Structures are given as C-alpha cells and as structure tokens.
Amino acid sequence: MTNRKPLDAESSPKAAYGAHLRRMRDERGWSQEEVATRSAYSSQHISAVETCRKPPSLPFSLKMDEVFETKGSEGSFERRWHRTRPGPLLEGFPEYVANEGKAVEIRLYEIGIIPGLLQTPGYARCLADSNVRRGAITPERAERRVRFLGQRQDILDRSNPPMRLIVMDESCIRREVGGSQVMAEQLDRLLDVAEQPNTVMQIAPFTRGEQRALDLPLNLLTLPDMTVLAYAESQIRGHMERHTGSVLGLLTAYHHLQAEALPHAASVAMIQEARKAYP
Predict the structure, then answer these.
(1) 36-54 pLDDT per residue, tens
(2) How far apart (Å, rounded) are the C-alpha atoms in residues 50 and 14?
(3) Residue-range domains of the chain with CATH
C-alpha cells in the first residue's frame, strides 16, 4: 500500500470514476487482482482505469456493475461512464477549458479557421450549421457547441485577462466562411482584438512554406504557477499533454513559429488588406 497513488476525484470525470472504483474495492476489502479474477480484466487494466492512465469503456463499466452488483443503481459504473463522455465536445477538451479559465498566458496556433476564442457568434454558427448539414452532429449538439464557445469567451473577459499570443496561418483570414457579412464582422473582430494590450497577433504567411514550424493547430497554456500545458486535436479526440519534456518541445516549436511569422503590425496590415474584399 505504500506505493499506492493518491487519486484526485475532483480533477476530472475520469478521475472521479477511478476513485469510485477504488472506493468500491476498498469497501469490500478486494485487491485489484481479486477484481481482475472476478471480471476477466487484468489487474493492470484495473489499475490503469483507477489512475486515469486508461479511460473506462462501456463494456468495462457493465462488467464492474456485475462484479459489484450496482447495475441500475444511482452509483452504477454505467452512469459514471456516461459522465466521462465529452458530449458535444471532443474528448480531452473539457479538461483543457477548465485550465484555460485559470491561465495567465494563452498561446494559440490555428490553420484554416479563426481560433474559437476569437470567433464571432455568426462565424461560429456557420461552422456548426455546416456540421449539421453534413450529418456530423445534431442541431441540439451544434447549439450547445456555440453556446459553450460563448461561455469560454465570457470567462476570459475578466478584470485581469490572460496574455494572448496568437499565430494564425494565412489561410485563416483567406478562407471565406458564411459569406461577405460574416467575414466582414469576423475580420473586424480580429482587428479589435489586435488593439487590446494583452494581445499579440501574428500571421504565418503562405510564403513561409516549409519554414513553418508547426503543421497542426496547437494550444499552450501557462498557469499561475508557471506550469505549461499543451492541447492538440485530431478529428475524433483531443489530448492534453502535461509531460514536461513533450510540452517543452512543443513550446520550442511555437517559438520558432513566432519567429517566422509576420510581426504584429504587419499582421494587422494583412488582416486590414483581407478586410477590403468584404465591403
């Protein structure tokens, strides 16, 4: 027991799930090996779920309800599994947002679309509605997604806002979304944000080509204790990276990206030039 890893049930729904699993074991005096024998899952798998190294699955949760005789109860593992699901958001993103609201510095890099924190409601709505038309999400999920984005923006509009270092690929301001009116409002929004004292905005122009240090979007958060977290997404899930070595490599790449991007003033001038296409 001396090597038992402490669990923080408040840190995430997955952590709460793991803490619940350990508590249920402890109440019965069962070891991980005994649960493994009763469930046909390995003790290593049980341990990984308890400590959040492996996410719980629905089949695992149903089996735990059999083992612990909790099926259909308020504290069933199936119910707790549903709470770990990201809903209208990608897996990993709720954890990122929880830290985003506490950050003292936010570094963003985006390709193809305006970063969420800078999107106007009209721009965000067009993106969500497009997903609905393709059948990728339901209208209800699109509505929750747009509403959630507004809540994120409101949280960061505080008396001591975080420093925002924003690098956008040139494609972000060249790709038309929603037509002339939506784009005009969106580019005006970028110009307004660029004037704020807590914002440095840079464009990575097409001419940089292979010199661009990052080929995928990236978010970096600096927390009040100077811890730096990284968040990145694929098409199906997001991932929060806390490991110092991995985050340091991404931070270095971001520094190179900033060095190759246009300075703030030149970036604002490029946005102003793009704005002229939408009278």
Answers:
(1) 999 989 999 999 999 988 8
(2) 9
(3) 13-84 (1.10.260.40), 93-118+156-275 (3.30.870.10)
